[in-house]
Amino acid sequence: MNLPSALALGFFLGIRHATDADHLVAIGTLVRHEHGVRSAVRTGAFWGLGHTLTVLTVGASMVFFRLTVSGPWLRGAELAVAAMLISLGAYALWGEQRFDRASSGASGSTVPGWTVGRLRPLLVGIVHGLAGSAGVTLLALTTLPNRTGALAYLVLFGCGTVIGMTLLTLLLAWSLSWTRRLSASMQRTVVLAAGVTSIALGFMVGVEALTFLRLDGGFRAALPVGGSVPRNDRSRCVDACQARAIR
Fold it and tell me: Is the pTM of this model over 0.85?
C-alpha cells in the first residue's frame, strides 16, 4: 500500500472508530441536555481532542522510543474505560433526577459551566484513547514502512476521530432536542435508557477485560523485571491491540 492510500485509510478509520458502541454510549450521556449546535460541536470536538492526545502520546512513544505495550496494560486501560462508562451512566441517572427537580423549581440550574462542560468530554476522550492507542499504532507500524509515515497516519487518524465524533454528537444532540420538543417524558426515557445502557456496557467491558486478564495470568505475570515481554505474549498483545483498533 502506498503512502497516500495508507494515510487516507487512517483518516477514514478514525471516522469509523468514532462510531464504536462504547464511544456512542459515553457521548450520549454527555450531550443529554446540550442546547444548540455550537455546544454540541464543542462537546464532540473536545472528546475527539482528548482521544487524539492519548493516541499521539502513546503512539509517538511506541514509534520513536520503542515503548512496549503488554496485554495486561491493555486490559488495565479497558478496565478504566469500564469504570468510566459505569460512572457516566450513574451520573446520567442521578443528573436526570436533579434536572427534573430544577425544571420544577426545586433547585437551581444544573447546566455545567464552560470549564466543566468542556473538561468532562476531554477527560472521557483521554480515557477512551488509552484503550485503543496501542492497536492504532501497531496498525500504523505494520501498514507504513517508516516512522514519519506512521506518525502522519496517527495524526490523520486523530483528525478523522475528531470529525467523526463531532458529526455524531451533532446527530445525537439533534435527536435529543427533537424528542424534547415532542414530549418531555420521551426525552427523559431516552436519557434514562442511555444511562442504563452505559452502566450495562461498562460491566460487560469490565468482565471481558478481567476474564482475559485472568487468562493472561494477571498484571505481574506478564510483566517480568526489566520491562521486557516474552515473544509469545508480545504476539498475543499485537493481535489483541489490532483487533481493538479496527473493531
Answer: no
